[in-house]
Amino acid sequence: MKRVKISLEDLPDDLLKEAVKVIKRGGVIVYPTDTVY
Known about the structure:
Layout: E1 4-5, H1 13-24, E2 29-30, E3 35-36
InterPro entries: DHBP_synth_RibB-like_a/b_dom, MeTrfase_RsmB-F_NOP2_dom
Domain SAM-dependent MTase RsmB/NOP-type: 1-37
GO molecular function, one term: methyltransferase activity
């Protein structure tokens, strides 16, 4: 499991792309903890 802490105010493009990859692999983005799994 990969855990990446993010901030909604400061979301780099590379981190956003990584989040999209996680979603496509069937991963889950959990809010409001702003943690990408």
